[in-house]
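Request: Mind sharing a record?
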Amino acid sequence: MDPNPGPLTTRPATVLLLHGWFCDAGRKEIFLRSLGFEVVKPKLSDFSFRRAVRAARQAYEQCRPDVIVASSRGGAVVMNFDSGGTPLVLMCPAFRHFGSARRLENPAVVIHGMHDRWVKVSASDQLCRNSRQATLLVVDDGHRLRSPQGRQALQQGLEIALGHRNKCDGDEARPNMFGVGAASAADLPLTCRDGG
């Protein structure tokens, strides 16, 4: 995967990584760096959602990332501030538990583990249905998305987000977006779904 955001730039793409509740997203940071991304990971308050949103917004304004990757509560955080249309990759976003946003305003790829015990896949499905430019990728994993399938979905989500390929109409040539070993949506219990 080429993390360069465009043909005329030589700098690696910058990812703003927003961690979940009482989690530092260290493994995700290591994985993103192994793909060649520059990673900015602010410490978000675990005790005050408002302070977490403020810290994320400040980090966003300082680094102006190419893409925002957010896990669980971090997904709710990014949904509750204006991130200027920056593409999002949200992993099991806990938006129903934190904040008031219930739809995505930015182009987004939402990745969810079908075995997530904390945030239901149906929540991400509904989020994508309520949003104009959102694609749902469901993988054989749990909430933390630590499996090889979760990592592959994150890499695919980044490719989609950075390429602004947010449609899942099935008629155009596109990368496999349905998880490891799945050749089409029919191979998974839930399909890749285009929002709106």
